[in-house]
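As a warm-up, study this chain.
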Amino acid sequence: MIRLIQCIVVPFVGMFAAGRLAGWLLSGLGLADWVRDFGSFLAAALLAAFLYRCLDPAGWENVFRESVGEPCTLSLAFCHVGYGLLWLMGIMAVVQNLFAPPMQTDRTLAGAVLSAVLVHPILEEWLFRRVFMARLLDLADGEIPAPEVVSEDAAESVPRRKYTRAGMLFAVLTQAVLFALMHTGVPSMLYGFGGGVVLGVLMLRTGRLWVPVAVHMAINLRSVIWPILPQSLALGMDVVLAITGVCCGLLFWILRIRQFRRQRTEDAS
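Now compare it with the structure written out below.
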């Protein structure tokens, strides 16, 4: 319980409070929405990292040297990017159909790209899918690593831990709830929870932080440019993304079946 408070509760509460306070202060200055969002999120992320660093120094060191999730090949990782984006598009479509579309703000394209496409995905994925989820896995399954293993495309061995299904479920759902609470409004919170689950699963399946970062960047970029495109072009872009996601999903299962058959052949020999 003490480690849960140190590693998760205090950093998250500090992050939540700092984000809301900074947003309130910046809104009083009459700044553009993207400047307010960027400033409030940056303050929240930095405070969360600072609190975590102070309260759990050992965990902070592990963040930079341990592997979270199941190491996979580079080809499989790219497949996960494609169909992970497809899942997020589906969740977004469901939420938008259930609720009225959000009001347009005064975001500029450059500001939205800087804030929503570049800074938010990197920091959010690092905090939620790397820092918080790693510690949640520790709390659920213990902190003793399994023997070092070598992934098929890795130059050297990396530490990998064995996780139970219950531990992974606990970590994925908990960090998704925390991620949802950082959003404002019921539609955004629902989408944040669904997206947090998908991105958390991607992190566990690939062991590569750049995979959820890439998916997060892509879906945010789609959200930024979709409203300013002509309707036919916007729908065409969604069709291309959907086809790409389906192809990536099919390729993923083809590669996994080949990998499974190769493993069975090696075990038999």
